[in-house]
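Assess this one:
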Amino acid sequence: MKKVLWVAVALMTAIGLGACSSDDDNDNGGENVIWDIAPVTFSFTFTDSDGNDMLDSTYQGNIIKDVSVTYQGQEYPLVKWEDYERKMREQATTRVYLARFMGLILYETTSLDGKRHYYMSFGEFDGAESVDKREITLNLPTGQHFRVAYSRSYHQEYRKAPEIDTQFYLNGWAVSRFDHEGGQYGFFNFRYSTTDGFDYPPINVR
C-alpha cells in the first residue's frame, strides 16, 4: 500500500508537462500556450527495522527534532507544513506555477486504506532551469550525513513541448532511474537499524 502512495505522489510531482491555453489561443493555433513545469524537490521517508514511521510525531522513536538539511551554508530544521502555511503571506495567483523555496517541510498523506504516512521535502527549485549537481546535505541524528544532489537538463524550442531530463545522486552515485522513489523523481526511503544506522538500499544506486 505504501508503494501505491509513493506512485501517487510521484505522479503528482511529475505533472508539469501539461499545457494550458485560453479558447482564443486555440483559435489562433495555440501560439500562446503556457507550459506549467513542475518544480524539483528532494523527498525523504524514514522507517526503522520494524517498519515504524520515524517522521510520525506519535512514534516515540521519531527524528522530527533531530533531522535537518544544509544547503549553501545554511541549516534548515524540519518544519510542519501546517506551521509553514500559517506564516505564509498571501500571494497573487497566476496561471503559471512558480517554484517557491520553502526549506525542509514535513507532510502528512493518507494511503488508500486510510493509514497516515509522513515524508519530508526540501525545495522547491525551478523546474525550467538546467543545473549540474545541485547538492544538499541531509543531517541525521546518528551523526550521519548524506550528500544528495540532482542534475537537470531543460530545453524547449519555440511552440514545442519542453525536453526535460533529471538525474538524482546519493553521495556522488547516480540513483537508478528505474526506481520511482529515487533517480528520476527524487524520493529517498531510508531505513534505520541499531547496528548500521540509516542506510539507503544499495540496490538502487550505481
In short: Helices lie at 2-14, 23-27, 81-87.
